[in-house]
Each structure stands twice: as structure tokens, then as C-alpha cells.
Amino acid sequence: MSERLSVRKTYKLFIGGAFPRSESGRTVIVNDAKGRFLANAARASRKDVRDAVVAARKAQAGWAARTGYNRGQILYRVAEMLEGRRGQFVEELRGAGLGKTAAAVEVDAAIDRWVWYAGWADKIAQVTGSANAVSGPFFNFSTPEPTGVVGVIAPDSPLLGLVSVLAPVVVTGNTAVVVASESAPLPAITLAEVLATSDVPGGVINLLTGHRAELAPWLASHQDVNAIDLTGAPGDLAADCERAAADNLKRVHRPGDADWSADPGTARMTAFLETKTVWHPVGV
Amino acid sequence: MSFEYAPAPESRDIVDLKPSYGLYVDGEFVEAKNTFKTINPATEETLAEVAEAGADDVDRAVAAARRAYDTVWGPMPGAERAKYLFRIARLIQERSRELAVLESIDNGKPIRESRDVDLPLVAAHFFYYAGWADKLPYAGFGPDPRPLGVAGQVIPWNFPLLMLAWKIAPALACGNTVVLKPAETTPLTALAFAEICAQAELPPGVVNILTGAGETGRALVEHPGVDKVAFTGSTEVGRQIARSVAGTGKRLTLELGGKAANIVFDDAPLDQAVEGIVNGIFFNQGHVCCAGSRLLAQESVADELLDRLKARMATLRVGDPLDKNTDVGAINSAAQLAKIRELSDSGEVEGATRWSPACELPERGFWFAPTVFTGVAASHRIAREEIFGPVLSVLTFRTPAEAVEKANNTPYGLSAGIWTDKGSRILWAAERLRAGVVWANTFNKFDPASPFGGYKESGFGREGGRHGLEAYLR
How far apart are CA B177 and CA B27, in angstroms? Predict the structure, then answer.
């Protein structure tokens, strides 16, 4: 009796809560560390970037208007779904070249990282906001608000790195358009399947696979993107993107080499927050 | 014209009551020498027999909590503690209807409140503090805040499970272990919570539940193995606890009584204010430490406000707590009912005018009709003492300064309400009110992210929010 032939998955993009192929019809071959064929991933185009930005913009106001508690609940639900697919992610990370133990450690760290960020949803304002003692009869307070639509060039750490750049963007009410790792894009699309079944509203997170050097400049120059995280962009590309981002004064986050196992701190959240200060007179 | 309501009872089937319950110590239910009965205050039927913890049980529970603190919970990374608390939050959400029904039959509060207010807040509180467990260095209490050790916690009967959440969630998030005593008249949801701890596979000894009365509580707070005492209840007992803790080095937080003023200025939206006044004093039968039990109405609108208030009170439905249309449920105990009656009678004797809407009360159980007193003087007992029942005392004022003066004329300082359309006046009054929580154009709002607690003899320390962590860290 012959062994059962497995059913393979088609890896597509994740835009507006749906899984379209690239409008360009292009794909890139993804091989495992030993050079064996794994899948044809979608190779996103400029138009896919623009579609993703439209979806992210459409979702942003509603996502930001949810209570921190509600966003926290939804993001925690993502962690629950991640845990349920633990085995699958371990397999995909092994396909990306990690050893069995290293893959398991990375998946666990990614789930815990997601839980860590989920808890910030209703707390970040308590850490970054303030009541300001102005000299006059005024009540004056400052609160953080999300910047808007954030483009994210994800690093090559295909799951922990991706989670570590994505979660801090969306937990505060931003929406994201993410360009996934070029060398190991498949875990990003499996993460999209997690997001699609976790009550995350469509468009809050959009994931693109393909060539960074092709996609990043379109995100960086897009006039309806408010901020860009260049963590995964190599030096020359990052500098070009930073220049393009200046056009509509995007907030640019361009950290140095990241240690994904370290305490992430709050910098990745505050990078994509605006501070709003309200004055109100005090008096009978 | 009025509408008749058909009965709309919530089913009790979801609750599986056992005939008797033990103490929850070191991860197991154990029996005690003595027991007592807990009853349904709406029917006076016995619900279950519950263990009464003695001094030796307190010893065992504190020892278990100490062991768990030293060997498991204290050393555990915050991220792992967080995941236990998230589990507990989810289990509460999953069992929330069952817990709401159980709360209503043991406490007497309307199912609409236990289902829509208490239980969502309970789950949210655990969810909120779960998220702090792995973020304590960001909370503003130094780079490496440490837990205190074993917390002895004593909670009241008015919001049994919610008060449990306010106590246990921040304590565990910060790395402490707890021994908690629920109120004598409302032990059942705390025992259900013990089951939830077991379902969450919380390590034994991290949470211990000792049922009992005042003596059990005293043995717990006076136990030398306890590092931290947290109490919610009456100012009188709070004072005794402060005395007994004095000199021991134990940390203490107290959330005690109140006599909140609800101030209605002449520019207030009156219909909205009436809803807030009703919510302020008749929510949970007035068994609320922050209840708006003194209405301060500006003279020029006092008559109109009272007319509208009485009309609204006439629509309140008093009766079966499990009926989904019920607004005001049963008084929690015969003792509490006697206290409410005694204070209300004093109001009449001292010269205030009493009014209640026509209101048919059930024959069995403990009931008190929503009541308003007018012509109340600041010297009357009903203006000074906490009644802890559905009784509102109305006073009037002419100027904003007089309103603030009268509002602050109390040894309590838990909460206050302000009703006006003018934002600057809200902030002006809020600056001057000596109260830990000030609600403006709303009342009795609670959220796990928002600190709660009193000034003056309403106690000290805050529960909820980032501030709530301070009570469990050094």
C-alpha cells in the first residue's frame, strides 16, 4: 500500500481579512534550508501594497475606537490560536532552517511575546499619559493616541521577529501593512490564518510576501501611510525609504540590530503613538 | 398607563449546588470542625452548609500560602504568573452565567446586575492584572519591585466575587499568595472561584479560601504569618483591624464606608441626573460603600428634581432577584434589614419626611422599599451615618461653595457625584471634594483600569489601575 499523498497549502497574501493571490500573478519559489521545494509564495506588487493600505486605512478608525480592554481581549485570543497551531509553526520554522529545539523555543517565545503585548492595550496610557501641573486654573492632561496606518518591513526572524514588530504596532490602535521576511515568508502567511480566526477585524493587519526592495519603497512613499518601521530593511534600502518617508513626514522607526529574546521595552509602541494634550478651565 | 410585566426568571439549573462545602486550603477542599448555613435572602431557604474555619485552619492556610510563596509563586517569572491569571480570567468568562446566578441567589442582588455588571467586571479585573504580572518594572514603583509575601484578605457581602477579584488579582499579579475570607452571608461564589483555581491548575497554596464569620477574619488578620492585610468592609471593623495590625510591620489597605454626596447644580440635565441619582442609591439595593446616599440639590431646581425622582422611583421593580426585569432585589440579611429599618425610623423621629412609592414586597425574604427622605438636616443620623440600604437623604444648597462645604461635612471620603453642564464647574468642584472617586454626570462607574479608594475614614490604599499594584509591592 502506498503512503498517503499530503494535500499542500497555497500560500497567498492577507489583505483586508481575505487571502488573495497577488494581482500581478507572480510568485516566488520558497525552498527549505536544504534546497528542497516548499511552496510558491505570492510575490506582491505595488498595487497589492496600495490595496493593503486602503484596507488598513478603512479599518483604522474602528480599531482605534475599540476600548483597550477589547483590543487586549482580541490580541490575547490571537495568542490562544497561536498556541493551538504550535506544532505547525514549529514545522514551518524547521523548514526555514531552525533545529527542532530552536524552532520550539522560538514559537514559545513568540506566543509569550504576543501575550505580553496584549496586556499593554489598556495600560500603555497609564504609563505614557500624564496629568500636567500647569501654572493656572486649568486641568491639563496628555493621552497617547495611535498614529494611524503603519508600514512594517519585518525582519528575517520569521515568527518571533515578525510578532515582535507587528504586535506593538496594532495593540495601541494602529493598523499595519507588513512586508514579511523575504527569505522565510511562509510563517507570516500561517500567522495570517491565525489572525483571520481570532476576531481581529479585517484590514487591521495586512501581510504581504515578495521582494522587500521592490515593496518597501512603495510603502515608504505612500501618502496615506503615517509611519514606517524599517527594522527588516537593510542599510541602503532603509536610507532610501527614510528619504521617501520624509515627503509626508512619516514617523520612522529604524532600530539597530535587535535581540528578539530580550525584554522588548515600550519603544516599539511609543514610536507609533501621538501625544494629545487637552486643556480645560477650572472655575465655578 | 402602566404595563404589566410577565415573570422573566433566569433559570437556576445552571447552578449545581452541593449540600455542603469545605475550606479550600493548599489546593484541596477540607472539612472544618464547625459549619454554618448560607441562605437565599430572597426566600430564606438554606442553600448550603459551609465550613467555619477555626484558628487551626487559619494556621494551615497561612502555612500553605507561605510554602507556595517561597517555593513556587514568588520565584515564578511574571510571564508565567500572567498566563495563570489569563487562564482564570477566561474560566470566569466561560462560567460567568453560572456565577451570576449563584451570586444572585446567595446575595439577593438582581440577576441583571450580577450578569451585566459584577461578572464582566470580575473577568476584566483578572484580565487587566494578568497583563501587569509581566510588566511590573514599568509600573512606576522602581526597576525591580518585589512582592510582600502572604496576603490575608477579608471581603464584604455586597459584591462578593467582585471584591474577591479586586483583592486576589493584583495580589497574585505582583507575586504574593493569598488567604481570603469571604463574608459569612455570601461564601458560595468564592468557593466556586476555588474550583476555578483548580481548573486553571494554579499551584496549591497560592489561593486559599477560608469561609467563616468575624472570628475567622480576626484570626486571619492577626496571624503573625501574614505580611499584608487587605480589608473591605465597615469603618468600625476597619478601625479594629488598624489597631490590631499596628506595630506588627504588616502592610495594610482598607476600603471602608462612605456617605457620598451627589451634587445637582441648577444647570444639570435633570432627567440624566435622575437616572444617576437612582443608579447611585438604588443600585445593588444601596449596598454600595460608594453609594450616592446624600442628594445635594441646588434650591432653585430641588422641587422639580424631586418630582422627577419620585416619578422615576415609582417605576422601580422590587422583587425576585432572578427575574430579569427586577431593578431592586433582596436585602442581604435580616441583620442588615434591621439596621436599615432602625436608621430609617430615626430619620422620621428626627423630623425628616419619608416617602416610598407604592410597592408590593414579597412575604418571605428580606425586603425594603426604595425610600427618599426630604427635609433632612446635616445633624440627622440619616445624613451622617452609612445606612447601606436603598435610602436616600435629600439636602439642599444655594451656592457652589455651600455644596462643597456640605459634601465634605462627613468623616467619610470615598466618592462624590457632580451634575452640571459646565465643565469648568465640574473640575472646580472635583478639586475641592475630599473624596477618592468623583463621578461627573455619571455615577457608580467601575473599571479595572481605574483606581478606587477613599480619603479620610473611608480607608486608605487604592484598588484598580496601576495604582492598585502599590498595595502588593515593596
Answer: 12
Q: Beta-carbon neighbour count of residue A236 at 10 Å?
A: 9
Q: What is the pLDDT of residue B4?
A: 80
* CB burial readout B147-183, b (16+ within 10 A) else e: bbbbbbbbbbbbbbbbbbbbbbbbbbbbbbbbbbbbb
Residues B171 and B250 in one domain: yes
CATH number of the domain where residue B430 is located:
3.40.309.10
The alpha-helical segments, DSSP class H, found in B14-68 are: 55-68
- Pick B424's closest partner by Cβ from A73, A123, A282: A282
Whether the per-residue pLDDT at B362 is higher than 80: the answer is: yes
pLDDT tens by residue, A227-246: 999 999 999 999 999 999 99
Decide if B222 is catalytic.
no
Three-state DSSP class for residue A115: helix
**pLDDT band at residue A1 using 50, 70 and 90 as cut-offs:** low
Retrieve residue A155's grid coordinates: 525582519
Q: Do B82 and A123 touch (CB under 8 A)?
A: no
For the beta carbon of residue A133, count every other beta carbon within 10 angstroms. 7
What are the residues whose beta carbons fall under 8 Å from the beta carbon of B263, sequence distance 6 or more?
A: B296, B397, B403, B407, B416, B417, B418, B419, B429
Q: What one-letter code names the amino acid at A173?
A: G
Q: Which residues of chain A are within 8 Å of residue B428 when distances are taken between CB atoms?
A: 282-284
If one counts the domains in chain B, the total is 2
B421, B468: one domain: no
> What's the rounded Cα separation, in Å, for the pair A251 and A271?
7
Pairing relationship of beta strands A27-31 and A37-42 according to DSSP bridges: antiparallel
B3 burial type by CB count under 10 A (0-12 exposed, 13-18 middle, 19+ buried): exposed
Nearest CA in chain B to A121: B131
Residues B370 and B409 in one domain: yes
Among all residues of chain A, which has the CA nearest to that of B84?
Answer: A115
Considering only CB atoms, B131 lies closest to which of A118, A266, A280, namely A118
Q: What ipTM does the predicted assembly reach?
A: 0.94
pLDDT in tens, B122-134: 999 999 999 999 9
Residues in chain A with CB shorter than 8 Å from the CB of B86 are 76, 115
**Cβ contact (<8 Å) for A127 and B83?**
no
Q: Do A122 and B128 touch (CB under 8 A)?
A: yes
Instruction: Tell me, yes or no, if B255 is annotated catalytic.
Output: yes
**Residue B446: inside a domain:** no
Whether residues B252 and B272 share a domain: the answer is: no
Q: Of B73, B91, B64, B103, nearest to B209 (Cα)?
A: B64
Please report where in the chains the cell 426604595 appears, as a residue: B370
What is the distance in angstroms between the Cα of A166 and the nearest Cα belonging to chain B? 18
- Annotated catalytic residue, options B10, B52, B174, B289: B289
Distance CA B447, CA B88 (A): 18
Which one of B184, B255, B386, B457 is the catalytic residue? B255
Alpha helices per DSSP H over A171-256: 186-196, 212-221, 235-245
Confidence check: pLDDT of B1 > 70:
no
